[in-house]
Amino acid sequence: MTERPANMLCGLRVLLIEDDFMVALLLETMLTDLGHRVIGPFARLEKGLEMVEQEAIDLAVLDVNINGREVYPIAEALEARGVPFIFATGYGSVGLHPKYSRHPVLQKPYLREHLRMAIGRACHC
Amino acid sequence: MVVDRGVVTRLLDVGRLCAHADSRFEDCLAGILDAAIALTGADKGNIQLPDIVSGSLVIAAQRGFYEPFLNFFASVRHGDAATCGTAFDSGKRIVVEDVKESEIFAGRPALDILIKAGVRAVYSTPLTSSAGQILGMISTHFERPHRPAESELQLIDLLARQAADYLERKRTEQALRTLATELRHTIHTFATGLTRCSRDLRYIWANPAYAELAGVPLEKIVGRPIIEVMGEDAFAEIRPYIDRVLTGERVEYEAELPWRAHSPSWIHVVYAPYEEDDGSITGWVASVIDISERKHAERRQQLLLRELNHRVKNTLATVQSIAMHTLTPSPGLESKEVFEARLLALSRTHDLLAGTSWEGASLREMLQQELAPFQVADGTRFTIEGPDFEIWPKAVLALGMAFHELATNAAKHGALSTIGGNVSVMWDIWGPLGQRALRLEWRESGAPPVKKPERRGFGLGVIERGLSFELDACIELDFAPTGFVCNFKIPLLRNEERGHLD
What we know:
The complex is a heterodimer of chains A (125) and B (502). Helix content of chain A is 37%, strand content 22%. Chain A has 125 residues and is an alpha/beta fold. The model of chain A is unreliable at 1-7 (pLDDT under 50). A six-stranded antiparallel β-sheet of chain B has the order 3-2-1-6-5-4, with helices on both faces. In chain B, β10 and β11 (281-290) form a beta hairpin. The longest helix of chain B has 40 residues, at 150-189. Chain B is elongated and about 140 Å long. The A-B interface holds A 19-26, 29, 41, 43, 65, 67, 89-92, 95, 107-110 and B 306, 309-314, 316-322, 324-325, 394, 398, 401, 461-462, 465-466, 469-470.
């Protein structure tokens, strides 16, 4: 398996879907620190779908549970466009639909390094 | 050998009477007694049976006796002064040729009773079961002293054998009937579903609890094929267990059965093979309980644990976020203290929610709790005014954080930084039905003039961005010279609005 070093990745346009403001703020700061541009964060499923339609997106970070609803419609829309994505969740990979098991899962609380590696994996899978 | 045809006929008649299924018990006893009197040439007689409870001999049939005899000998216990009592004790026949000469009655009141009843001689023959148990007593009485001939005693023995066999059969029948009734009653009342099935996969019997589990009336179960009652899918599910029990194995399992008659239910089942005396397995007995409730509780517990884990992880991420945005070195801030204060604010909000099992919290209580650390002794710094209002958990968390930041800002730069400064928090519920919103105003006064900060810090970010992000709130900040004012308008969730109006 050939993989470019993940740290080569920067300047991505990252869609952030997360309903908890503090957590969103954390991810936003981490993504910015890693040299990416954040689109969002958004706490509404509809708004997220709208962004997938309208914006040029390189990558998305998706909280699995958005105000009691599953984020999968956004994941589907992203898959249809070939946009890579990462799941961020407090449930761990057990809570994830098996269909998406090959996508990287980021566990709360987040480590900057894990986020960086997950971005690397998402962009090469 | 000379055979008296009358005697033979008499014994045959008694035998027939007792063997006939329709004969009444009393009639049989009377027939036996009459034969005994006739065969021995006695004047009177009686048959006694042991009372199940007391064990005493009780007169069940009699000929020729009246009061006070009947009353006196109504119940004879072991060792009582009576021929039958002595025979009862010894298990052997007792012959009293003359009551006046007998040691049994000498000086006892029974003697007088016997004499008055016209009894001078008596003998009692025990009716003994095949196992040697005394099933009854047959006594014949004579008005004159009487020594029975050997042939007379043989005849009474023959009759006694017939009578004992009859009594033993009746006892066995009664015991079986009682057992069957008890068993039927027990199975019928059992809360556990019970059924017996045959090797050809039909129900032989079932109890009402089973019928309820299956959701099919009992009369539509007995005799029917299992597959017809349960449905194909449920039957396919249990088929492997049936195959196992039919090999003679005891089987126990839990399964979610898709019954034909109703929605699936979880059951706990035990199968015991039904083994005949020759060792062949002709079917099985099943006991079945509905464990759906337990299964649901287990599932709910798992969900709760998962949810708890999720909340803990989420809270940790929140703390991580607060740490990241608070502990970055910035001039003029005691970042460690600010961090601690923010953690405490978060903790207080959790306390409030824990108190209601995460159902929500009262806005007033929340304000009082968040502002308590900033209050002064005489309690004049805050005016809190508004209708009682219950807010939903997500809003409690977001507002808890916002109020903390508002109060912290006021303590640093605003009304809470000087003596005499105060803050009024007022709210109402506003707007037409279906579009109601919580309007809240935070107004500071009596403070030095404030000026708009050049850069929005984390605290103001939490208020402005956080509330609009999480609650779709409109936020207006006014750095007026008379004091800082903050206005929120938070649209109410449909159910929250209804909850308030109720």
